[in-house]
C-alpha cells in the first residue's frame, strides 16, 4: 500500500499548494510506515525527479496533452485507475478548485471516506482522525475516516513545505484516457496582472471605498507592492470591480502571505475566502469592525488618508532599495 498525492500543475509547472500536499503526504506515509508517491497529469516542463526532496519516492505521469485542460470526470477516472494500480490507501489533494472537483467524485467511485479542507496531520492514536474547519472557519471538527481507502484534501497554508534530500523515480502510468464529454474551445486569461489565486500579496477593497471612482488608491498600493487586487462581494455585485476579483464563501478562496483589507467589514462569508492568509492587515475607520478580530495588524483610520500614505512610504522604500 502507499500514499498517493495529486500534484496539480498549471502550464507545465507544479503549483505551490501541491508542494504542501507532497510534504504532508510524505509525513502521512512515514506515520503509516509506507511510501509517498505523486501523480501528475498532462505535459510538464518541471524536472520531476527533484520532487523527491519533498519526500516523494515515485512520480507517476500521464503525459498526454489532452490532460492540459482540466476535466473533472476524466481526471477522476485516471485517479481511480492510478489508486487501484498502485494500491493507494490514502489519497491526498490540495483543497483548491481542482482538488475540490476531483476528491468527492473519487470518494464515490472508490467508496472512500473523504475529509475536505484538512488542517493537520491525521491523529492515528484512535483510528484515522483528521481535523478540519466547519461553519466557514468558525469551528473545528475532528472527522474519523473508517473506510479502507481514505481521501484528504489539504487546506492551503495548513502544512509547511518541508524539504530534505532525495530524488524521485519517474514512471509513466499506463492508463486509458476516456473521451471528455466537455470540449474546451478557448481559454481566456486575465492578462497583465498578478493572477489572484497565485498571488503572494493581495490588496482588497470593500464597500467602504464608496465607489469605483476611488479604486485608484487600491490599485496604486497593489502596484507598489507587486500585489494582486481583490474585493468583497457587494463591490463586484455593484459592478465596481469584475467578478473574478470577488473573494469569500461564494467567490475565490485565496491564501496569500499578506492580505490587506481596506474598507471591508469582515463578515463571516468574506473571511471564509481569506482567513488562510498568513498575515492579515485591516484598514477600517470603525474600531468595532469584526475584521479586526481576524487581523494580525490593524489600522483604525480613514482609508482615503491612510492608504495613500502607505503607498508613498512603500514607493520611497522601493526607491531606496534600487
Ligand atoms: C450566502 C451569502 C454569501 C456571501 N458571500 C460573500 C462572499 O463570498 N464574499 C463577501 O465579501 N461577502 C459575501 N457575502 C456578503 C457579506 O455577508 C457581507 O455583506 C459583505 O462581505 C460586506 O462587504 P463589505 O465589507 O465590503 O461592506 P460593508 O459591510 O458595508 O462594510 C464596509 C466597511 O467599510 C468601513 N468603512 C467605511 N468607510 C470607510 C473609510 N473611509 N475608511 C475605512 N473604512 C471605511 C466600514 O466601517 C465597514 O466596516 C455573502 C452573504 C451571504 C448571505
Keywords:
322 residues; alpha/beta; Rossmann fold; 2 domains; 7-stranded parallel beta sheet; 8 helices; 16 strands; 28% helix; binds flavin-adenine dinucleotide
Structure description:
This protein is an alpha/beta fold and about 325 residues long. The strands form 4 sheets. Strands 7-10-6-1-4-5-11 form a 7-stranded parallel sheet, with helices on both faces. A 5-stranded parallel sheet has the order 13-12-14-15-16. A two-stranded antiparallel sheet has the order 2-3. It is globular and about 60 Å long. The model has no long low-confidence stretch (mean pLDDT about 95). The longest helix is centred in the C-terminal third of the chain and has 19 residues, at about 305-320. The protein has 2 domains: about 1-170, HUPs (Rossmann fold, 3-Layer(aba) Sandwich), CATH 3.40.50.620; about 200-320, TPP-binding domain (Rossmann fold), CATH 3.40.50.1220. The protein has 8 helices and 16 strands. Bound molecules: flavin-adenine dinucleotide. Flavin-adenine dinucleotide binds next to helix 5, helix 6, strand 15 and helix 8.
Amino acid at each position: 500500500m502507499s500514499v498517493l498525492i495529486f500534484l496539480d500543475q498549471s502550464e507545465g509547472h507544479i503549483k505551490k499548494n501541491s508542494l504542501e500536499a507532497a510534504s504532508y503526504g510524505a509525513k502521512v506515509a512515514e506515520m503509516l510506515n509506507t511510501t509517498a508517491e505523486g501523480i501528475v497529469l498532462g505535459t510538464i516542463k518541471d524536472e520531476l525527479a527533484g520532487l523527491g526532496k519533498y519526500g516523494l519516492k515515485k512520480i507517476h505521469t500521464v503525459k498526454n496533452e489532452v490532460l492540459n485542460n482540466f476535466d473533472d470526470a476524466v481526471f477522476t477516472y485516471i485517479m481511480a485507475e492510478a489508486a487501484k494500480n498502485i494500491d493507494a490507501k490514502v489519497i491526498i489533494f490540495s483543497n483548491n478548485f481542482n482538488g475540490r472537483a476531483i476528491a468527492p467524485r473519487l470518494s464515490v467511485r472508490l467508496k472512500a471516506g473523504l475529509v475536505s479542507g484538512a488542517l493537520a496531520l491525521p491523529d492515528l492514536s484512535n483510528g484515522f482522525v483528521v481535523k478540519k474547519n466547519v461553519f466557514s472557519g468558525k469551528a473545528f471538527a475532528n472527522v474519523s475516516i473508517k473506510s479502507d481507502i481514505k481521501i484528504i484534501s489539504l487546506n492551503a497554508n495548513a502544512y509547511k513545505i518541508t524539504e530534505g534530500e532525495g530524488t524521485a523515480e519517474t514512471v509513466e502510468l499506463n492508463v486509458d484516457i476516456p473521451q471528455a464529454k466537455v470540449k474546451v474551445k478557448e481559454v481566456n486569461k486575465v492578462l497583465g496582472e498578478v493572477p489572484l489565486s497565485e498571488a503572494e500579496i493581495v490588496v482588497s477593497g470593500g464597500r467602504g471605498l464608496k465607489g469605483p471612482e476611488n479604486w485608484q488608491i487600491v490599485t496604486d498600493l497593489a502596484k507598489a507592492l507587486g500585489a494582486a487586487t481583490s474585493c468583497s462581494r457587494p463591490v463586484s455585485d455593484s459592478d465596481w470591480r469584475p467578478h473574478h476579483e470577488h473573494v469569500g464563501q461564494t467567490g475565490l478562496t485565496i491564501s496569500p502571505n499578506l492580505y490587506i483589507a481596506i474598507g471591508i467589514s469582515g463578515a463571516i462569508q468574506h473571511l471564509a475566502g481569506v482567513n488562510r492568509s498568513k498575515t492579515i492587515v485591516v484598514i477600517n475607520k470603525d474600531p468595532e469592525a469584526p475584521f479586526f478580530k481576524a487581523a494580525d495588524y490593524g489600522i483604525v483610520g480613514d482609508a482615503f488618508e491612510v492608504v495613500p500614505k502607505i503607498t508613498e512610504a512603500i514607493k520611497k522604500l522601493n526607491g531606496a532599495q534600487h
